[in-house]
Amino acid sequence: MSHDEIARTIDHTLLKPEASRAAVAAAIAEAAEFGAYSVCLSPSALPVEVPEGLKLTVVCGFPTGRHHSEIKAAEARLAVAQGADEIDMVIDVGAVRERRFDDVQADIRAVREAAPAPVVLKVIIESAALTDDEIVGACQAAEAAGADFVKTSTGFHAAGGASIHAVELMKRTVGDRLEVKASGGIRTLADAKAMLAAGATRLGLSSTREILQDKVAVGAY
Fold first, then answer.
1. Checking CA distances to 49, which of 42, 87, 153, 168 falls within 20 to 30 Å?
2. What is the Cα–Cα distance from 103 to 220, expressed in whole angstroms?
3. What angle do CA 61, 64, 68 make, to 5 degrees?
4. Distance between CA atoms of residues 80 and 143, nearest Å
């Protein structure tokens, strides 16, 4: 893939809790500069203006997923009302670990109903904190609830971020019915290419400039 093709898979991400308005504006400008698919922001950064051709992604239930489903739904609904094109929601990882997949599905469905198509819904499963069977179950719940993507990680969990194994497993589970987003700990251009080769169609990167310039990103999430 060319650099331009890789750039069009990127959700350029700014989710640091200390992010200022100036930092948000800079992230939007950088996403546009490099031709990223979207800029991914926290809900409190909204409303913002983004250039034509750049999508706006907003996180929901971030970063723990331990919010009530009604709160996640309200957060997603408000984000869409304020211009979000895509929602990246965090599931209740504890429910997955307890194999309460019906509860996971209901949680996702609440957000899907609050942010119906054409809004794109990505479901963050924190794959590094799950067993293979749990990853499969979480992906199946996301598909049953009407999600568009399954996503590896928030980038904030102590267990780690994306792995090639997780992306491959998620892709095998959802096939071509859903897409896969890899995020968390992608620090080099080689990492990005490997995730795409494993089956990801979208990348969550906080260090887009460094990665596309083939430099090692320090402190990426």
1. 153
2. 32
3. 50
4. 21
Helix (H) or strand (E) holding 103: helix 101-114
Provide block-wise average pLDDT over 10 residues at a time, the chain (221 residues): 94 97 98 97 98 98 98 98 98 98 98 98 98 98 98 96 98 98 96 97 96 76 60
Burial of 73 (0-12, 13-18, 19+ CB in 10 A): buried
Model pLDDT, residue 128: 98
Q: In this structure, what token pair is assigned to residue 107?
A: 């949680």
pLDDT at 215: 79
Sort 164 into a burial class: Cβ within 10 Å, 0-12 / 13-18 / 19+: middle
Which element (helix H / strand E) includes 221? none
Cα separation of 200 and 165, whole Å? 11
Query: Which residues belong to the active site?
Result: 88, 151, 181
Q: What per-residue confidence (pLDDT) applies to 1?
A: 85
- Chain centroid offset of residue 7 CA: 16
Tokens at 143, concatenated: 């598909």
Contact between 201 and 180 under an 8 Å Cβ cutoff? The reply is: yes
**Domains plus CATH for the chain?**
3-212 (3.20.20.70)
Closest among 53, 137, 54, 146 to 102, alpha carbons compared: 137
What single string gives the DSSP state of each residue in 189-215? HHHHHHHHHHT-SEEEES-HHHHHTT-
